[in-house]
Amino acid sequence: MVNLIVDDKEIKVEEGKSVLQACLENSIFIPNMCFIKTREHPHASCRLCFVEIDGLDRPVTSCTEKVREGLVVRTATPQVRRLQRMAFKLLMSAHHCQPKVCPAKDGCQLIRTAKHLEVGLNPRPLERLERDVEEEVDLIFFTYYPFRCVLCGKCVYVCRQRNGHNPLTFAKRGFDTVIGFITSGDPADAPCHHCGACANVCPTGALVLKPEYTEAIGVEGSR
Amino acid sequence: MSRVDIKKRFTLIQREAARRAEEKKTEGIPTIYIVMSTCGLASGAAETKQAFEEALSHKSIEARIVPVGCLGHCYAEPLVVIDHPTSGFPPICYHQVSAARAQVLVGSYLEKGDPVFKYVLGATEENDLIPAVMDFPRFNLEQRLVMEQCGRINPDDIYQYVAEGGYEGLVKALASDPEEVIAEIETSGLRGRGGAGFPAGRKWRLARGAGPDEKIVICNADEGDPGAYMDRTILESNPHQLLEGLAICAYAIGANQATVYVRAEYPLAVKTIQQAIKSSEKLSLLGSSILGTSFNLEVIVFQGSGAFVCGEETALIQSIEGKRGMPQHRPPYPVEKGLWGRPTVVNNVKTLSSVPSIMNRGAAWFRSIGTENSPGTAIFSVVGNVVHPGLVEIAMGTSLRTLIFDVCGGIPKKKSFKAVQIGGPSGGCLPESFLDTPIDFDSLTEAGAMMGSGGMVVMDENSCMVDVSRYFLDFTQKESCGKCTFCRIGTRHLLTILDRITKGEGREEDLGLLETLSEDIKSGSLCGLGKTAPNPVLTSLKYFLDEYEAHIREKRCPALKCRALTAFYIDLEKCARGCDVCVGCCPVEAIFTATGRKKAIDQELCVKCGECMVVCPPEYDAVEKISPPELAPIIERPPEKK
Question: DSSP code of B224?
Fold first, then answer.
């Protein structure tokens, strides 16, 4: 066990954990989108979990920092908040918030993050960016909503963990990056018939299992 | 295997190389060296070669044609060196040798002994008859260390490399302890030439000390900066120097496997390096039990599929593993856990190519070149508005002014210097006040640019700095892997803002937003690509703020570059009565005849292509460009005659 001080509060956690996990387990919320606690090498793509650590000259992502004895962590300094708010606004500038139809409404990580960061859901002063993709993409078993997706990559990761050579992957590049569904053989043979892990792990309701598969897979199809 | 045995085996190879070189000399027939790397081929070197062959056979003249790599003098391609021993002249370098000139050279020089002075660039050695190229600043201010043999030897002939002292560094390394090799590289102070300048020796030591696992060496030849082509040239012109460096590194860190990661867009480089690997293996300079020792090294070539981000080492490793080229958070660094989870050294082409001469001539010699903290040389591909563009290798510490004005001949057409963009899309634009900055890792970073991999774009007074930033951001946002928020979405916002400024739709608050967003992308991004992507914006905001302000507040482009903010008009005072060249060239029929048979432009129809300005005869020079467009005088089109 190691001791660390987070926002002047002393906490005790097992060695080998990341600062983010240590905080979350001790009821200290740090915004995050792409973090999966069992993932050995953190994806570190959402850029929301910044913290300041004494001795380091700039904010660092807490998912990539391992706990050490005596670490002094601050989760809400002006520098940290500036980066988190900018990252959040960037995400919101490419995200269409549709509360009425959004399947993630109660558990939406974005809304939780907005509350925590004390910012609205609009990206001001940034403008909304348009993307050259369809509103809804048919991925055989799923419906994919690119404008809800924050590309946290959780779905791609869980799919790979469960199914090895996974049908879910990132496609295209830059701002046009989306989640793609690629199989080498007949898509009907894809492992998705009995999985559904990706839809379950999606934090923004961007990947939704089609109703006809919800029952067969036995997962909550909405999220 | 004792040191003596290694040397004995190598001496046999050296003797064969010397014998072959001697044989050529004693034959006494002329040798025609043709620069046939990608740049030469693009300028028509293949046609030149064919013309030489045909002319020689037509006239039944015996001569040897040797394809060589690039000399770095792009402005003079296709380049040919003719060594005609019986003519009494030294070897002569000819510039812009087209197929027609090739025929002339065969007829006049090889047949009749007249060296055709008007095509001569210079002699390649000192003599009393023809000025030597070494007397020109483009040659004598350079200090060639990595590119010493480029363009002088046939890249496909390993013996030519050996004859010039090649593989002696490897032999020396094999005869020493790996620790001694690392110590030598550490003492030399060699820093990684890929951009960040991490000390190569320290990287090697970290990898060697990283556990019992077998190590791997990767040569990063995924050169993707727009306008940069140093790595391609080295691969195409002297592949064995790189392989020798690779082998020394592998021996030092304890690797039996090496990968050369080359862009698939460099087909000639891929072919050349593959051929070089084969011929080194044949002579037991690579492969199993190298020169009879217990050291084995398998070198494979991996072709990258054209993603700029794969030049980032963690993305490069992902790509080799068959995954999507996306950077990973470091640590773990590749030296701890790299390709297939093994300790991996990733070094740039120029870094590894510097290694053989360090082993051969010693660390102290290397340190004597360049500066205290950045020893050795820097290679730049200097492009843009300079008289002599091309590849330049200079000692570190040389000033930007010397490089641009003395080596590369300054700005053409009597225009004035405006800025230099160093380090490609990750670098920065430096104004005139920085011309005396010495070129080394630390000084350039301090100035807000970076050494990068060596791209350098020189810009004259007609370059709009907002437009230049927009160009680079367009590149980086397209090449972002899409993984992290700041780079994926942030760079797109920067582009959108720059786009609207160049279109005259900029807003006052855009300046602050550009700066805040750039700073946040810099500190918030996951990998080096994202962290450096805003540099062109930040440096141009810092040094050329007035241009941004002019675009936003006055809707004016000071460099007259941004199309939406400029207009063309014809100065009636200068326009010649009755000349109508401009009318004929206008693609949209926007030019009409005004009073006095002079011409005018209909601003509504004009698409601002600038053709009229190009064709207007210089003695009139009547077409003017102006910004903001409202300043262009409006001339009514006369009513159509019935």
Answer: -
**Each residue's pLDDT tens digit, B63-101:** 999 999 999 998 999 999 999 988 989 999 999 999 999
Reduced to 3 states (helix: H, G, I; strand: E, B; else coil), residue B470 is helix
Across chain A, how many H-helices and E-strands are there?
Answer: 6, 10
Query: Looking at the partner chain, which of B329, B482, B520 has a beta carbon nearest the beta carbon of A42?
Result: B329
Among chain B residues, CA nearest to A85: B520
Inform me whether the C-beta atom of residue A83 falls under 8 Å from chain B C-beta atoms. yes
In a domain, A223, yes or no: no
- Measure B535 CA to nearest chain A CA, in Å: 18
pLDDT at B232: 95
**Model pLDDT for residues A53-94, shown as the tens digit of each residue:** 999 999 999 999 999 999 999 999 999 999 999 999 999 999
Residues A93 and A162 reside in one and the same domain: no
CA separation for the pair B216, B250 (Å, rounded): 7
Q: Is A64 on the interface with B (CB under 8 A)?
A: yes
Residue-range definition of the domain harbouring residue A154: 137-217
Question: Residue B641: pLDDT above 70?
Answer: no
B531 touches chain A (CB under 8 A): no
CB contact under 8 A, A90 and B481: no
ipTM of the complex: 0.95
Q: How many CB atoms lie within 10 A of CB B209?
A: 13
Question: Within this chain, do residues A120 and A61 fall inside the same structural domain, yes or no?
Answer: yes
Residue A117: the pLDDT is: 97
- Quick one: CA dihedral A193, A195, A200, A201, positive or negative? negative
Tell me the average pLDDT of chain B: 94
φ, ψ of residue B376 to 5 degrees: the values are 95, -160
Q: How many CB pairs under 8 A join A and B?
A: 98
Interface test with A, best of B487, B489, B494 (most A CBs within 10 A): B489
Statement to judge: residues B286 and B357 lie in one domain: yes
How many Cβ atoms sit within 10 Å of the Cβ of residue A1? 8
Number of domains in chain A: 2
Q: What is the mean pLDDT of chain A?
A: 90
Taking an 8 Å cut-off on Cβ atoms, the answer to whether B485 and A129 are in contact is no
- Does B492 contact chain A (CB < 8 Å)? yes
pTM of the model: 0.93
B5-48 pLDDT, tens per residue? Answer: 899 999 999 999 999 999 888 888 999 999 999 999 999 999 99
Query: What is the distance in angstroms between the CA of the first residue and the CA of the last residue of chain A?
Result: 35
Supply the range of the domain harboring residue B520.
465-553
| Structural domain contains residue B372 | no
Nearest-Cα distance to chain B for A82, in Å, is 8
User: Residue B324: closest CA among chain A residues belongs to which residue?
Assistant: A170
For residue B139, the model assigns a pLDDT of: 87
